[in-house]
Design brief:
CATH architecture of the largest domain: 3 Solenoid
Structural class: alpha/beta
CATH superfamily of the largest domain: Hexapeptide repeat proteins
Distance between the termini: 86 Å
Radius of gyration: 27 Å
Oligomer: single chain
Number of strands: 39
CATH class of the largest domain: Mainly Beta
Shape: flat
Largest sheet: 11 strands, parallel
Strand order of the largest sheet: 8-11-14-17-20-25-28-31-34-37-39
Strand content: 25-35%
Helix content: 10-25%
Length: 355
């Protein structure tokens, strides 16, 4: 299947002020990276610093910014637009929409739907899925194979749940969300009270509320709240293998990369990013527009927007061990330095003529 280059530009003309340089009748068979794109493929240049790769590319057309237009036009067709990365993202959406098979609607014969559940007429329910009592599934929603939708769950319109997604009792997912395979929403949070050397379970009585246009990566877990709900606001993007603890609140349009852990009752503001493998400790707050580097451990609340990093640089093991040993001595060195400063200050006051 192919798309005509001129049709691609025309489809996005209402949103972008883009200009096509070259033949609009060129047929595009595939989207591809700049380095490997061939004469029937479309690619993009995300940043001017990669311009050296542009001249060698065999792509039929490259999406570029205004700065790269001279080089791009010399090598062949190009689409010139202010934000090439965003423009190419829209092209990928257009491409998938035009090439994907239409999703089948209806309920698979092996699926179970409780009689009290309410499903819009055009909902798709995959094989061996289970939908519990009083659940509500909105128009155009898709429940994948082996999915489990608990009692009193609400799934918004056009939301897509892939295979083996579990949404536990009472949880709410908004509209146009994408939930990838293996996600668990609404499992019990990790709450236990010590009792004579044993642990007493604290029942988790809240739920999980997820807004609109949220995407959740494969095998991510979002725990239900203990008393109040865990909340994921509109537009949040969660990568694979993320753990969100009970009563966490994540503000709109924040993005968390793979293997991030957010402990219970932490609050992350709007438009934040958290790099892969980072950890946010419980009961902390991050302001809006806070960006945390990968593998950092957030041990205090962050009240001001900005980019924060908290990690020990990698080194060869012998050097790392020496540096780690030195770090352990910092407190003692600090106390010795304070004592020396106090001694010097006392001596200066007693003998001002020698100071």
């Amino acid at each position: 299947m192919t798309l005509r280059l001129g049709d691609i530009v025309a489809s996005l003309a209402g949103e972008f002020d883009a200009r096509l340089v070259g033949d609009p009748d060129v047929l595009i068979q595939r989207l591809a990276p700049l380095e490997s794109a061939g004469p029937a493929e479309l690619s993009f240049l995300s940043h001017i610093r990669y311009q050296g790769k542009l001249a060698q590319s065999a792509a039929a057309c490259v999406v570029v910014g205004p700065q790269a237009e001279p080089v791009a036009a010399l090598r062949g067709a190009c689409i010139v637009v202010g934000d090439p990365y965003l423009y190419f993202a829209r092209i990928t959406q257009l491409w998938k929409k035009s090439h994907q098979f239409a999703a089948a609607t209806g309920i698979h014969p092996t699926a179970f739907v409780d009689p009290s559940a309410r499903l819009a007429p055009d909902v798709s329910v995959g094989a061996f899925a289970c939908i519990g009592a009083h659940a509500v599934v909105g128009a155009g929603a898709r429940i994948g194979e082996h999915g489990v939708i608990g009692r009193d769950v609400v799934i918004g319109a056009q939301t897509r749940l892939a295979a083996r997604v579990t949404v536990a009792d009472g949880c709410v997912i908004g509209e146009r969300c994408i939930v990838h395979p293996g996600v668990v929403i609404g499992a019990d949070g990790f709450g236990f009270a010590p009792n004579n050397g044993a642990w007493e379970k604290i029942e988790q009585l809240g739920a999980v509320r997820i807004g609109n246009d949220v995407e959740i990566g494969a095998n991510t877990c979002i725990d239900r709240g203990a008393l109040q709900d865990t909340v994921i606001e509109d537009g949040v993007k969660l990568d694979n293998l993320i753990q969100i603890g009970h009563n966490v609140h994540i503000g709109r349009h924040s993005a968390l990369a793979g293997c991030v852990g957010v402990a219970g009752s932490a609050s992350i503001g709007a438009h934040c990013t958290v790099g892969g493998g980072a950890v946010v400790l419980g009961h902390l707050s991050l302001a809006d527009h806070v960006h945390v580097s990968a593998a950092s451990v957030v041990t205090r609340s962050i009240r001001k927007p900005g980019h924060y990093t908290g990690l020990f640089p990698i080194d060869d093991n012998a050097s790392w061990e020496k540096n780690a040993a030195t770090l352990k001595q910092l407190h003692g060195l600090r106390e010795r330095l304070k004592l020396m400063e106090q001694t010097t200050a006392t001596a200066s006051r007693k003998n001002p003529e020698k100071s």
